Amino acid sequence: MARFREVPIDVSFPTLERAVLARWNAEKTFEQSVAQREGQREYVFYDGPPFATGMPHYGHILTSYIKDVVPRYFTMRGFHVPRRWGWDCHGLPVEFEIEKELGFKSRADIVAYGIGRFNEACKASVLRYADEWRRIIGRLGRWVDFDHDYKTMDQSYMESVVWVFSRLNELGLIYEGAKVVPYCTRCQTTLSNFEARMDDATRPRQDPAITVRFRNADLPGESFLAWTTTPWTLPSNVALAVGPEFEYALMEKDGDAVWIGAATVGNYARELEGYVEKKRVLGEDLVGLRYQPLFPYFEGTPNAFRILPGDFVTTDDGSGIVHMAPAYGEDDNALCAAHGIEGPKPVQDDGTFDSTVTDFSSQHVFEANPHITQKLKEEHLLFRRETYDHNYPHCWRCDSPLIYRAIKTWFARVSEWKGRMIAANQKIRWVPEHIRDGRFGHWLDNSRDWAISRNRFWGAPIPVWRCQRAECGAIEVVGGSADVKARSGREVVDWHRPAIDAITWPCACGGTMQRVPDVLDCWFESGAMPYAQSHYPFEHKAEFEASFPGDFIVEYVAQTRGWFYTLVVLAAALFDDRPFKDVVCHGVILAEDGRKMSKRLKNYPDPMELVEQHGSDALRIALLSSAAVRGSDLRFSEGSVRDAVRRFCIPLWNTLHYFTAYANIDGFQPRGDLPSLPLSRLDRYLLSETESLRARVDEAMASYDFAACYDRIEDFIVLLSTWYIRLSKQRLWRAGMDEDKRTAYEVLHASLSSLAKVMAPFVPFLAESLHGALGGASDNSRSVHLEDWPAPRPEWLAEEIVAEMSAIRQVVRLARSIREEHKLKHRHPLRTVLIAGLPSGAIAHNLDLLADELNVKEVRALDEPEKHVERAVKLDYTRLGKKLRGDMKKVAAATAAGQYEVLEGGGLRAAGIELQPEDYSYRFAPRVAGEGVAAEEKLVVVLDLTSDPELIAEGQMRDLNRGLQDLRKKAGLAYADRVEIGVEASDALWAHIVAHEEWLKEQVLATKIARGSAEAPLAVEKIEVGDEQVLIALTRTEDA
RNA sequence: GGGCCCGUAGCUCAGCGGUCAGAGCAGGUGGCUUAUAUCCACCCGGUCGCUGGUUCGACCCCAGCCGGGCCUACCA
Fold first, then answer.
1. CB proximity A130–strand B (7 Å threshold)
2. Rounded (10°) angle between helices A764-774 and A13-27
3. How much is the average pLDDT of A565-590?
4. Which residues does residue A424 pair with via DSSP β-bridges, in sequence order?
5. What is this model's ipTM?
6. Is the preceding omega at residue A790 within 30 degrees of 0, hence cis?
7. Would the pLDDT of A115 be above 50?
8. Label partner for A891 (CA 20 to 30 A): which of A331, A425, A573, A839?
9. What's the mean pLDDT when you consider all of chain A?
10. Among A517, A492, A534, A506, which Cα is nearest to A150's?
């Protein structure tokens, strides 16, 4: 009766995985794994929410795998690791989707449709992919709690966000200002400076660049040349700026004189053909000069139309003179404000000119560019027209080119607490490490005030109410629903617009307090996630404070300016702390061709089809053992997944198959009594490596080096499969169950059991199958994911055996290379091998192993290796380099040339310098080619190549055995099936067969060996035995 | 313009102040296998981007340059 669950050899990993999933679902294994750690140490993981406006792609899958491995690992290590799924619900991405669906062209369409209806549509849509996400993430084997998820649109979440805003306000970190900010004319809202850099929002664009004459108001024959790539800002021009330190040249030809930056004259070689430099002055000498406005629209602007000094002026591009439109440029705004100039704002919210700009009224600014250029040309004010390729920001969702525009916006005064953010960052552990002071550190250094309001609809409200009486304008900021109720007497039923807008209350002045209409930047909401998911500080106050900062987050590198950033901003302001302790930044997954994965190009395989083809664990291995987990980009190919199956899954599976099949034949039942068993050195080697694997994985996980974890596990599987099991076959194949055989089973069982646990976080499905199969015939054994991580077993470590085995494996390689060189088949036995250079005792310890592996009758120590090999001194460079310094070269040259003398009592002298025995060792190289000698490092192997009839006969028997085994397999026989054999052999060969009949019968489980073909054989084949072609046949013996 | 990362075999990537630079894949040859879709050995294949410097010793550290990627900037 089978005790171990039968493991089919022709496994389908995807099928296997589905069965495991079914069991996890049925037994609520995930829930148990979390619940059983209740009360133990917390390991706090924050789930960075995806925008669920589409289906998961490889990037999400990579993130998800890491978000699964780490919590699984720490759970097994004894931590309580709750994992709540998060949904990002608010913001432009969603609004934009809905606008598309409803066929809206502009913001006005939304208002006409009704904010309430629009937001209902947003709400209804955000979770439309939720079921698909849940299905896919579940299929991947990621354990995460979807039932207790958080959504940024939850009332509790929104109330915490409101609290965060009010808290910042109490700290004096919020203000309303009219700064120049990125603005989307289609969405009709401001964006934050970092949204303008999201993903590929900043990308090449071609714009017109024109150089314009501004005529000197007092000397009409002179003009100032200014260059701009935004002709649409020229109607709003109110000043020019020059670099006070730069030189400016007055260039003249035929009575036309133009001022231009001296360093930029070369930029205008063609236009300035024939012009002569008449004068050269410093910029500061031009300051104060007046010029005629280009357009008449704003002629009356006080203090305007003069030349101002600007420290931002460069001479890299353009003409060295910069035109100033304060409402549409940050520098312009600051400089003009400093000189008492208020700029006109003729551009309306939808990007069109208002009626003040009579010539271009109601034209969109980008549409107006050529018309403005044309008009300037007609008035002879256009000096040059060109096109300019530059990187230009676009709206990260609707893709419209942004403009910069002064607009009333609510700001978080980030520049004020930047220092605390920088300090907090120093306490964060980044993987890869360079992000901390590199990409992220520099980003923090450049932090500017954050425009947090959006003149939009679907988001958490700015919790600011303002008295509607213009002459009062009092402002109140609320920090939660209690604040609202205290003022208005009304409950907050929904923090969303328009419900929240409907709540008003009387101002002390008699006016009405009404909410300012803006909503918050959705990045503000995601930055508030640690607090808002717990409804802090309204609920779970103590739990939150005990669990903050979080232990671990992971997202892709671009979040350094997204979520990672907003988390740090808010945590530094609210708690003067880091929001998380450890963060892993993974890279971007590219298609195999090195380009971005593109649905349109179909340059990548569908993730779920791939998972159903090869299995999720294989995909997990491929992704997490790649450089992507170290922050690099990854060219993903299906081949890497196939490779993972071939290198990792199949060898492991076959190991398990072998173990269960033979253990069941033998009726092996583990007793767990290893310490009392006569462990062989091979057994101790495997146990030592088993323990080392655990330690190596722990070490790698301490630095979140997932790739190293997979490498170590794979190394172990190879060792297990190609060394331990292969060498144990003879032990396990023997009939009956002696103690040695049982020991082998116990060792294998212990090692595999440990392996199952160590693998569990990394290949959760395979580990579960492995663990389940080892647990016994009953399918009711506990999940491996409910087990504790293996405890250290220092008693399993056996360093000297590991070193010895590594030397033995080297000897085996050397012996094989000798056979290779001499075309001697491995099956052909040889008489003797001589070995030198092994650790003392190694030969005695491994006599049988060496004899088997090398297929020799006798293994002996080689006493005088010098007879077969040259001996060379191998210096310990690390030791000697430090000691000898400049003499190192002399000594190295002398010893390499064999010029040294061995000193009595150890040590040697070379180039007049004495070396201690620990300063060097010897290595060998074969002296004579063709002698059956191989050497490497200090090892020397000498194989006796001579043969004799007895050895030849044995070789033939092994050939025959091999052929018969092959035939058994081809005939589809079970391992324990008995057979009858027929052999058509020469007389000489037959005589050998007769001599070895018993051995052969035992090997191939034959009841009878006959000369000639059997009647109606089950299988027949012609094979090579020695030099002879032999026909073999077998028939299955009916069971007695 | 500035910053960060990268440049190692045909491909994907390890490595790292120490002797002769590695693995996997791909190609070739041979061998092993009573679990394996395996595996093993050997061959093929490298100016470790280039040039200097530091050092007894540099793929590794430093400087400069070339190439690629990512990020960034008030390219008006």
1. no
2. 80
3. 94
4. none
5. 0.88
6. no
7. yes
8. A839
9. 87
10. A534
What is the length of chain A?
1040
**H-state helical runs in A140-183:** 155-170
Quick one: how far is CA A872 from the chain centroid? 47
> Which of the nucleotides lies closest to A883 (Cα–C1')?
B56
Residue A67 has pLDDT above 90, yes or no: yes
Q: Amino acid letter at A540?
A: H
Sequence-distant (≥ 6) Cβ neighbours of residue A730 within 8 angstroms: A852
Distance of CA A635 to the CA centre of its chain: 12
Tell me which residue of A660, A915, A699, A692 sits closest to A792, measured CA to CA: A692
pLDDT reported for residue A1040: 43
Using DSSP bridges, classify how beta strands A306-309 and A239-242 pair: parallel, antiparallel or unpaired: parallel
Residue among A789, A764, A791 at smallest CA distance from A78: A789
Contact between the CB of A204 and strand B at under 7 Å: no
Catalytic residue at A88?
A: yes
Chain A window 867-926, residues with Cβ within 7 A of nucleic strand B: 874-878, 881-882, 885-886, 888-889, 923
Q: Is the CB of A475 under 7 A from strand B?
A: no
Q: In what order do the strands lie in the sheet with A580-586?
A: A429-431, A580-586, A550-556
Q: How far apart are CA A485 and CA A1034, in angstroms?
A: 92
Q: Lay out the sheet containing A901-902: strands in order across.
A: A901-902, A908-910, A913-915
Q: What CA–CA distance (Å, rounded) separates A89 from A153?
A: 6
Q: Which residues of A1011-1027 are buried (b: 16+ CB within 10 A; e: fewer)?
A: eeebeebbbebebebbe
Is the domain spanning A205-322+332-389 CATH 3.40.50.360? The answer is no
Range picked from A188-192, A260-264, A967-971, A975-979 for highest mean pLDDT:
A260-264
Strand B bases within 7 angstroms of protein beta carbons: 2-5, 12-14, 17-20, 24-25, 30-42, 55-57, 69-76
* Catalytic residue status for A999: no
Give the CA A147 to C1' B23 distance in Å.
44
A997 in Cβ contact with A953 (< 8 Å): no
Can A292 be counted among the known catalytic residues? no
What are the extents of the domains in chain A?
Answer: 205-322+332-389, 810-943, 949-1036
Contact criterion met (CB below 8 Å) for A960 and A858? no
Percent of chain A scoring above 70 in pLDDT: 96
Q: Would you tell me the crossing angle of helices A616-624 and A607-614 to the nearest 10 degrees?
A: 110
Strand partners, A830: A856
- The β-bridge relationship of strands A429-431 and A580-586 is parallel
Could you tell me if A116 and A52 are in contact, meaning their C-beta atoms sit under 8 angstroms apart?
no
| Cβ of A253 less than 7 A from strand B | no
> What are residue A210's DSSP bridge partners?
A228, A385
pLDDT in tens, A679-699: 888 899 999 999 999 998 998
∠ at Cα A725 (A720, A727), nearest 5°? 120
> What are the structure tokens assigned to A169, written together?
């306000």
Per-residue DSSP letters for A974-1007?
Answer: -TT--EEEEEE--HHHHHHHHHTHHHHHHHHTEE
A87 annotated active-site: no
